[in-house]
């Protein structure tokens, strides 16, 4: 029987000012994570999303490293007060609408199904001041949606932010 030794994983925090140093790392992990769908136009627009989110002052990112190699990451930023895009899905709207919006969470394929996604997610949200976290997940990925439900999220609606994007389940989680 073969025994595989998993190297220790180190979770490192990055912010808006770090984007020039981590941008290529994010693109490299994405290319590996989406190798089977890299031909899709929406997937090819990922560099724009990195620049869009990374350009925000409140941008926060956690990259997981194993043996010096980036194996996954998650990032997002606080929603602008009063402009939380998920508001239309709740009636009534909560009193405290401060929200951290998670844009991406991905792992290289060989690092999936080991609990690293949840660890990165928890590391990203640890000590956040916002009262809620929001993310979206492709409605054609029910197992992924169920995973996020296991992390405390609930589906509050659906959204298709771009004509070529998937239809997403809008998932919200209380943090306070």
TrEMBL record:
Domain of life: Bacteria
Name assigned to this protein: Acetyltransferase
Domain N-acetyltransferase: 9-174
Organism of origin: Streptomyces caeruleatus
Lineage, uppermost ranks: Bacteria, Bacillati, Actinomycetota, Actinomycetes, Kitasatosporales
Keywords: Transferase
An example molecular function term from Gene Ontology annotations: acyltransferase activity, transferring groups other than amino-acyl groups
Signal peptide interval: none
Matching InterPro entries: Acyl_CoA_acyltransferase, GNAT_dom
């Amino acid at each position: 029987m073969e025994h595989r030794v998993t190297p220790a994983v180190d979770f490192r925090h990055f912010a808006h000012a770090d984007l020039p140093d981590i941008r290529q790392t994010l693109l490299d992990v994405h290319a590996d994570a989406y190798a089977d769908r890299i031909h899709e136009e929406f997937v090819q627009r990922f560099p724009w999303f990195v620049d869009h989110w990374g350009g925000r002052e409140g941008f926060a990112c956690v990259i997981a490293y194993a043996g010096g190699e980036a194996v996954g990451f998650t990032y997002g930023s606080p929603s602008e007060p009063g402009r939380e895009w998920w508001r239309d899905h709740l009636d009534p709207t909560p009193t405290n609408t401060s929200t951290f919006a998670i844009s991406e969470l991905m792992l290289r394929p060989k690092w999936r199904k080991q609990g690293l996604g949840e660890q990165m997610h928890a590391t990203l949200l640890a000590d956040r001041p916002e009262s809620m976290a929001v993310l979206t997940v492709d409605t054609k990925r029910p197992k992924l949606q169920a995973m996020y439900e296991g992390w405390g999220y609930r589906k509050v609606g659906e959204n298709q932010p771009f004509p070529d994007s998937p239809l997403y389940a809008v998932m919200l989680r209380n943090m306070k």
